Amino acid sequence: MLNRTMNTKKESKLDLLQGTLDLMVLQTLAVMGSLHGYGIARRIEQVSGNKVLLNQGTIYASLVRLQQRGWISAEWGTSDNNRKAKFYSLTKKGRKRLAEDAHYWQRLSDVMSSVLAMSKEGNK
Amino acid sequence: MSDWLIQTFRRALAVFSKRDMDNDLDAEMRAHIDLATEEYIGRGLSPAEARRQALIRFGGRDSATELHRDTRGLPLIEVLMQDLRYAFRTFRRDRVFTLVAVLILAVGIGANVAVFSVINAILLRPLPFSDPQRLAWLASNRGEGGLSAITYNVESYEEFQRHNQSFEQIAGYNPFMGDGAWKLLGRGEPQPVDGIQVTGNFFQTLGVQPAVGRFFLPEECKKGGRPAVILSNAFWHRQFGGDPGIVGQSITLDSSQVTVVGVLPESFDFSSVFFPASNIDAFGPAILDDLRDTGNVLSMVGRLKPGVTFAQAQAEATALLPELRAAHPNWEEYSATIWSLKDYVSGKLQRSLIVLWSAVGLIFLIICVNLSNLMLARTAARNKEFALRSALGAGRGRLARQLLTESLALSITGSIFGVGLGFALTTYFSHQTSVALPLLSRAKVDWYSLGWAALIGLAATLLLGIGPIFKISSGTLSEALKDSGQGLSEGNKHARLRSILVISEMALACVLLVGAGLLLRSFVRVLDVDLGFNPENASAITVDIRDPENAAKRGAELQEVIRKVEEIPGVESAGISDMLPLGRNRNWGLWAKGRLYSRDSMLGAYVRVVSPGYLRAMGMRLVGGRDFTWDDGPKGQPVIIINQAAARLHWLGQDPVGRTAYVAGSMECQIVGVISDVRQRSLEQAAGPEFFIPITQAYPEGADLVIRSKLPPQSLQSTVMNTLRSLNPTQPVAELRPIQRIVDKSVSPRRFFVMLVAVFALLGLVLAALGIYGVISYSVARQTQEIGIRRALGATGPQVQLSVIARTLRLALIGVILGIIASVAVGRWIASLLFGTQPGDPATLAVIVLMLGIVALIAGYIPARRAARVDPVVALRGN
Questions:
Q1: Nearby residues of B642 by Cβ (< 8 Å), 6 or more positions away
Q2: Which of B313, B396, B783, B837 has its CA 20 to 30 A from that of B87?
Q3: ipTM, 2 decimals?
């Protein structure tokens, strides 16, 4: 199963737009509560149906940026299977920010889909 | 916005905790891969395969780390730090260059910081009073002439204050007081107190608050009111140990009990604003009713109402004073010229200070030109390094940034040492208590000075970096790799650039030297002035008169003092005057009997109340008649001695001895002697009419005992002091000070400026010499092979030597010609600062040209000799 997902490259994966990964991380933490980096990366892959091109390592740049902005906090802890890992959770500020950004993205994607729908009709 | 600030702050912090954050990230990434591996094992993969898959999904660990670093830190700054580290590494390889460059820069920046701090203190910063831009200075007689000419009597002060609409307040102080005005008794040895009287509203007008206690109450300023005094902060600390308990207590000043009512704040530096290089210990209230009949005794300072301009105030005063005078026929011709207090205090120094600023700016330019040249030579020597880096993929921009970083590193280091030097120099300047420049004592390296240092540091960075950048961006770098050595002389373009730099350096140095030369010559001329007295072997001490009111007793007392002092071994002569030349002064009316004067020509003359023997002790020259004797007593015929200026003005060249003069209104005096003119106010101002009255026939404003002796004052000090004490137990501690010090103080502002400009000019000369030497010896080194060829083809050593010297002199000559042309303009600009010297003084110009020529000759001779000794065989073989 794993091999298959790795090799299905009929449709190329989505490159992440600037800033989208941050939003995904925020949303994941909002839903899952406290989670370590690997868990966040896995969760994003699963939810996106593995359509997102994500080097899992890049998630850490996003995490440190969000942390420096004060939107998430981090703490070393122990995972379910007893491994030491850094756990991230949303701060109050981050929750507020997520609401704003989600709203913005929703509006943008609405606009984008209607614009794209229009141009298709025009062409055909 | 605050999120962004916090983030930036955290990113800056991250730059400094790189190792910790990297370790943390490393642990996190390891945990990540372990977690992923476990998950894959759980799905049935072999441990090795699971780990492989985990690593693949994670992506490059190095790139993840890099991304993490760039995100959390400040990549631009970190690149800069990297460049700086590289720059310092190359400097370590090039120690001599670095040392010389940093040293020169430090000197240039240090001098600039120090001069800026002085200018900031005197010219730029507001006066140390509240809302100082509304403060005005009012002076009669257009502010010209002695103190009596520019001051007001009590009535005109009161009337002007009552009737004017422009000023919120007008205050006054009595400028005729000062050194040793009072003596403090009952606290150990009697101490002199330098005091001054001020009107009751004086401190309120200036807008100061007392540090302790309060200012004068209205009843303390009235006749018969409770005597009160306010102490300066320095005196309070010196005399009373800064004890706040002294406020409210009474102290003994002269013969009366006076209550200390307040202490002024440290920031209130009255003397440095109004009496540079003097000292005011205490302020007493000016009791106007006591001063009403004493003539002109008040200097006026006013505070404009908000919104009123100086021009409006001036217009009102110009109209108001004649009106007031019409109502008071007994008044003199009072007028009021109004300056902003700031202009009055430092306006006349503006030109000098700007000249100083320009001089130090020229030094900075010369330094930059010099270092730019050094940097160019260094870049040329590093051609291969740049070519190599370029070949390895560094773009021109990257190389330019590296060069700019190197000059930044130099100028940062230079600035750090420069600020240190500037701090030391500024501290030195501000402690020059004998330099009579207002506000000099508050000069300090503050944020403005540091900002100025940063600004010129930045300018240095750009000026130093621009040459080398121009060089690497114009040449084809790959040529350098092909070129196997330095056999060929470099391209014309760079040789020309360097020549231009040397020429401009010579021109700048020439301008600086001419300016300094003119100022120096003026200074020598000032020192050469005939003072009319002889400061050599003369010294003075302030004497307390026990019974100043009674003329007969005063005479007997002072005659005894002089007799006793003249008995001291080594003392040639002694005499007393109430005011010494070049110090305080006052004017009284003086007229020739039998002559008609128009109202306009009622000019006063300087008056000195003196004892017999004073003229001799001061070394003043009697050109006709006789000195006073003790027989010219209170009941005898009133007599005066006049100076030649007074004789010319009032007796029109006839011999005035034996004639009668009216003094101060109606007193009829017989002229018994004429002296040669004495400089009264400064060395640079010609003497005005002056006369002397015996101390037994007029009231002295204090007393200075002048002693002529070949012994140094220090060795006489205690004997003289003991003699004075034995005659008058309340004689305060006083210093026997050389008369030369009075002269020195009078010329101290000029000396201060001249010395600085001269030092800068010498520095400029040395730098220019170094610059021209550097360029010529560098080009000789580059041309070794060429010179070798010429020698092989038959040129002799002397021929080669001559050609190098000729090239040096040609560069110097062009520079000097340009410099002289510019100097003519500069000379005209500083003409008002010159004394007895023409702006285009041929002697000065000739000396400077000669000096620069010799320096250029020496700078060219050394490399020329090296060129002459080139061995053609070695040169042609060598690479």
A1: B590, B605, B650, B656, B661, B671, B673, B674, B675, B689, B690, B691, B692
A2: B783
A3: 0.83
